[in-house]
Amino acid sequence: MHEGCALSNGTDRGEDFRLTSERLDPFVEYRMRIHDALGRLAESKSTELIEQHAPRELAEACDFTRAMLSAVRGTRWVPLQLYSRAELDPEAGAFLNYVESDPEIPLANMLAETDMVRRRTAVLIDDSLVHTRSFKPIIEIARSPGYVAAPILVEGRTIGFMHADRVGQSKLVDDDDRRCIQAFTGELAVLYQRIRWSERLAERSRRIRDELERASDALTQIGSAAERLTLSPNRPSPPSRRPGSTSRRETILTPREWEVLGHVTDGSTNRAIAERLAVSEDTVKTHMRNVLRKLRVTTRSAAVARYLAISGGMQ
């Protein structure tokens, strides 16, 4: 009986110690809130939506006043999206206008952002560093007493940053805030990469579908053209010239040559043509040599094409 009570008391004391530790370490609570925030972001269907909502989710999860997402483009970084709690930052309009003007900030030496690209880790810029490690124009507009920031690493390189501060609050940013933003951007990068891969696969699938559709359309057109060009085995004799007009056909070939060429167009061999016209095969060959010379072509197929073109124009 006493042993059971002792075990129970020990368990209770262990639970009390855990709860006390969580209260003493705010990062534990923030970590849970970060997990929930990223769960909501995971419902986004595009990287564009993630970029729009990530600053607000970070600020609300970690009690920051402001949070900003930026992109790294070569040797510069560009603020993209800013979220600010109006009740704590009543003059946020100037900073928002600055972000919306698409400024490009150089990754110069000594800047915290340059260190983040090189070292790939979060930074804490307190009031003792904010004027020496930060881009002066943005600090003058933001009027931040200090901030934390972390790189967004995708496929082994820094594609952007997240910044956050506590302007308007009695509490300044500290190392717990640095740990929080590091945790947030680390998981955000994984989420962003997964959705970007999905977008790329969807885009490739769309391009493949478009190519297949174009190929199908081309094959359909080729099939239609081939069907129109298919010659009937019982091809009628070449059309006669209209009364009262001078036949262009007769000025090019003789009637017998046109007759031979008509049979060639039907696909007949020289022997078949000779049997049909009751002449020798050599005579048919002679007619075809004359046809090729007069039409200024070198092959039977080219002669057939000229025959079809001339015959079509006479109809």
Attribute tags:
315 residues; Beta-Lactamase; six-stranded antiparallel β-sheet; transcription regulation; Sig_transdc_resp-reg_C-effctor; DNA binding; Tscrpt_reg_LuxR_C
Explain this structure to me?
Pfam families: GerE. Residues 246-311 form the HTH luxR-type domain. This is HTH luxR-type domain-containing protein. InterPro entries: GAF-like_dom_sf (IPR029016), Sig_transdc_resp-reg_C-effctor (IPR016032), Tscrpt_reg_LuxR_C (IPR000792), WH-like_DNA-bd_sf (IPR036388). Residues 225-252 are annotated as: Disordered. The chain is α+β, with helices and mostly antiparallel strands and 315 residues long. The chain folds into two domains: 22-199, Beta-Lactamase, CATH 3.30.450.40; 248-314, Orthogonal Bundle (Arc Repressor Mutant, subunit A), CATH 1.10.10.10. 60% of the residues lie in helices and 12% in strands. The protein contains twelve helices and six strands. It has helices spanning 2-24, 26-41, 47-62, 92-100, 112-119, 136-142, 175-229, 248-252, 255-265, 270-277, 281-295, 300-314, and strands at residues 66-73, 76-84, 105-106, 123-125, 147-154, 157-165. It has a six-stranded antiparallel beta sheet, sandwiched between helices. Strand 5 and strand 6 (157-165) form a beta hairpin. Helix 2 packs parallel to helix 7 (175-229) and helix 3 runs antiparallel to helix 7 (175-229). The termini are far apart.
Q: What topology emerges from the helices and strands here?
A:
Blueprint: H1 2-24, H2 26-41, H3 47-62, E1 66-73, E2 76-84, H4 92-100, E3 105-106, H5 112-119, E4 123-125, H6 136-142, E5 147-154, E6 157-165, H7 175-229, H8 248-252, H9 255-265, H10 270-277, H11 281-295, H12 300-314
Helix pairs in contact: 2-3, 2-7, 3-7, 9-11, 9-12, 10-11
